[in-house]
Amino acid sequence: MSDVIQIKNIKRDFQLGQETVKVLKGIDLNIRKGDYVALMGPSGSGKSTLMNLLGCLDTPTSGSYILSGKDVSQLSDDELAEIRNKEIGFVFQTFNLLPRTTALDNVALPMIYAGKSKKDRDARATEVLKNVGLGDRMDHKPNQLSGGQRQRVAVGRALVNKPSIILADEPTGNLDSKTSVEIMNLFNEIHAAGNTVILVTHEEEIAEHAHRVIRLRDGMIESDQRNR
Ligand SMILES: Nc1ncnc2c1ncn2[C@@H]1O[C@H](COP(=O)(O)OP(=O)(O)OP(=O)(O)O)[C@@H](O)[C@H]1O
Ligand SMILES: [Mg+2]
């Protein structure tokens, strides 16, 4: 049983005034440790909603979610935050870095919540920034970095606590094609190092990096194909 993610009949409704919007309509999904998955589908099909559930940023209306052997579908916000910090690295389309904070401190941030000392935090953040190719940009703030460099900082932040899964929601959505390739090479390396990687993309060329492509349509899995 090396499935790091086991999802059974997950539904997610949103309440909008009197109306119930059914967004995820019964998703079954198993993802094994070390897999490299691209999640695709039209705008509004539920990709981000599903990623937020996978990343423990949200809980389902019904259905079960077993993450690394633990049922996380009905946990409190505090319990979810703890799991998130330990198990999940999240990368967003818009980077979501703290603007007045150096690359080093942005990357070190999740280790504060993990209770690491300043010395350990700085040492680990330095190591991670070197790994993502930013050893010479550690003291730069986000507005002193290019888009691709900002996303590298965000990837470094996602990796810093050595999570079991890296989730990325359109990580190249705000980058030009050359920079997108660089970021995808970084995800390829992260996957090759043994991490489980799940990313959302609209672009077939980006999805080709993954080993498995899952397509959502209207809140359901339309297809699930393995290329490697
Ligand atoms: N908090 C919410 N309240 C009400 N409806 C929501 C909420 N979040 C998402 N939705 C609805 O759920 C549907 C799916 O949204 P989601 O963001 O998951 O789509 P997506 O596949 O990520 O689309 P995109 O490719 O545009 O990012 C949309 O119709 C959206 O309006
Ligand atoms: Mg989305």
Automatic annotation (TrEMBL):
InterPro entries named among the record's database cross-references: AAA+_ATPase, ABC_transporter-like_ATP-bd, ABC_transporter-like_CS, MacB-like_ATP-bd, P-loop_NTPase
| Residue ranges occupied by any ABC transporter domain in the UniProt entry | 5-228
Keyword Nucleotide-binding in annotation: yes
Q: Which UniProt keywords apply?
A: ATP-binding, Nucleotide-binding, Translocase, Transport
A single Pfam family, by name?
ABC_tran
One GO cellular component assignment for this chain's record is:
membrane protein complex
Provide a Gene Ontology MF annotation, just one: transmembrane transporter activity
Tell me its family.
Answer: Belongs to the ABC transporter superfamily. Macrolide exporter (TC 3.A.1.122) family.
Q: What is this protein called?
A: Putative ABC transport system ATP-binding protein
